[in-house]
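TEACHING EXERCISE
Course module: macromolecular assemblies
Task: Read the component lines below, then compare them to the predicted structure of the full complex.
Student: A.B.
Group: 4
Components provided:
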Amino acid sequence: MAEGVRPRVKAPRSAEAGEVVMIKTLISHKMESGQRKDSDGNQIPRSIINRFVCAFNGTNVIDVTMEPAISTNPYFEFEATVPEAGEFQFTWYDDDGSVYEDAKPVEVG
Amino acid sequence: MNFSRRETMALGAGALAMTMLPVQAFAATGDDAIAEFTGGADVMDGGVTLTAPEIAENGNTVPISVEAEGATAIMVLAMGNPTPGVATFNFGELAGSQSASTRIRLAGTQDVVAIAKMADGSFAKASQNVKVTIGGCGG
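Instructor-supplied answer key:
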């Protein structure tokens, strides 16, 4: 597991049923591209988060396939529909097999 | 073995063609990625909006956003990067809009391309040139 990985999500605590809300996510991760070389000229192996998924009560909102060209500390901003009260689930998949998760409950009304 | 002038010229041209080959192969990878995504289908201009800065001072973090109404997926490519793929956004049932923003790395001044796969199976494309002052690769 890569060190110091911390997911941060900004999502509203409450919404109207059917409302479209803005979600912002940021996860601290060095996103080593596999292109860089260390001071001895050795290639630093690739180590990135390769997939990000957001779902609401198990229904998919967005599924992003990520390549090494995504910046350090990957940031995503997107919109989601809130059909009912429930929970947003956020999942990040690391190259090394680690899975980072976060969840944000949303009230309706 | 003696070469006539004509044979020497032909050899030279052949050698030149050989050295050109890897360059062409490198340039084609972005197009290959597009072909893989679209399955060889025609790509129309318009219908997708790609927002990127004209000049990015730091190639390590260039903010971009894509939007394509009615798209099921949007692929973003940086044509001048060592690996052209950047990200593919697949929109689910509960996506509030077919738009997303993120930050990307660019190795140098180049075209950024967004290709949207529409719900009806057609493809749309947008591209923008971004000037990069400090590249985001190597170090």
